[in-house]
Write a structure and sequence with these properties.
Helix content: 10-25%
Largest sheet: 6 strands, mixed
Shape: globular
Structural class: alpha+beta
CATH class: Alpha Beta
Order of helices and strands: EEEHHEHEEEEEHEHEEEHEHEE
CATH superfamily: Endonuclease/exonuclease/phosphatase
Length: about 325
């Protein structure tokens, strides 16, 4: 894997777990306590920075009924990427008045949907959008939205992505692998076409065992399958090395994208971004890290701070995911 060239300050708001010898011994196949972060709302955005937040809202109308507006007011992102919007353009416009919104709805009503929105008080502008990914017969609607943003005198490409959740030995898993294969091709192109680019969103795969609390019991479940994770080896891999799936499928050389969550936290479990609504998963921090901000090397070098805005309590959640927020330095303009 590539060694990310990132600002050491990226880790400054990560709260590391206690040393293993100071924790209760976990069961085999279960990680110890995970890292968390401070909340983005408690840290002022640096001068001349762009704050980018991504969140799977599980239906944007439901998220607003449950209080996402309070989080927005506190975190104050310049750019907001949404997944599982599950609403029409008019719904988004009424819920985010004054925001400039790009939205790709799913062809199946009430499913998926991705968006990128610019805050009313921001000078950032949407200069262009694209949604095509994969073969012509692959329905990627509501799952991939590229936006070229004018940030001062530069263009930063932000992709809001929502990969399929999948289900082993079903057509859902076939579609998930088609999405991951399409992402492999497009990420290779995107990195060549745009020096400053970031793919954010719910990618529905934990890359390594430290990205999921109960890793051993999930080895045969969608979201932590070896063949899924092999794509992420390639996404974040060294361009001088080749990568293959467990089944022998050649994925090609590493693409060199930087996983900012792992770059910030280092080699410790977490910070997790998704917890099931069921049981005590949230209270026990039995989470999965499936929400990403993955940047080109040039943009990763500008990442100043990384946050996972995990609510303080189960009943404070407006979705089963937590927002992932990164502050990026903007280039000073003359």
């Amino acid at each position: 894997m590539t060694t990310p060239a990132v600002d050491p300050a990226l880790s400054s708001h990560v709260i590391a777990p206690p040393p293993l010898d100071e924790q209760p011994k976990p069961k085999p196949g279960v990680n110890g306590q995970a890292a968390r972060t401070e909340l983005s709302s408690t840290v002022a955005r640096p001068d001349a920075a762009m704050r980018l937040a991504t969140i799977n809202v599980n239906g944007v109308r439901a998220a607003f009924r449950k209080g996402i507006d309070a989080w927005l007011a506190a975190s104050r992102p310049d750019v907001l990427a949404l997944q599982e919007v599950r609403a029409a353009d008019a719904d988004l416009a009424s819920l985010l008045p004054g925001w400039t919104i790009a939205h790709d709805a799913c062809s199946q009503k009430g499913r998926a949907g991705v968006a990128v929105a610019i805050a009313p008080d921001s000078d950032i502008e949407i200069a262009g959008t694209r949604t095509a990914i994969g073969d012509d017969d692959f329905d990627s609607s509501g799952r991939w939205l590229e936006t070229d943003l004018r940030v001062g005198d530069e263009t930063v490409t932000v992709v809001s992505a929502y990969a399929h959740s999948g289900e082993v030995d079903t057509p859902k898993q076939v579609e998930k692998y088609r999405m991951l294969e399409a992402m492999s091709v497009r990420l290779d192109e995107l990195g060549d076409e745009h020096e400053l680019a970031v793919v954010v969103g719910d990618l529905n795969v934990c890359h390594t065992p430290i990205d999921i609390r109960n890793w051993r019991s999930n080895l045969k479940r969608a979201g932590f399958l070896p063949d899924e994770r092999a794509y992420f080896d390639q996404f974040f891999g060294d361009p001088e090395h080749s990568y293959t799936r467990v089944d022998g499928t050649d994925l090609g050389t590493g693409l060199g994208w930087i996983d900012l969550g792992r770059a910030a936290a280092g080699d410790v479990p977490g910070p997790y971004t998704w917890w099931s609504w069921r049981g005590q998963a949230f209270d026990n921090d039995a989470g999965w890290r499936i929400d990403y901000q993955a940047a080109t090397a040039a943009l990763a070098a500008r990442a100043l701070a990384y946050f996972v805005d995990r609510p303080a309590a189960y009943d404070a959640r407006f979705t089963d995911h937590s927002p992932v927020v990164v502050d990026y330095a903007r280039r000073a303009t003359s």
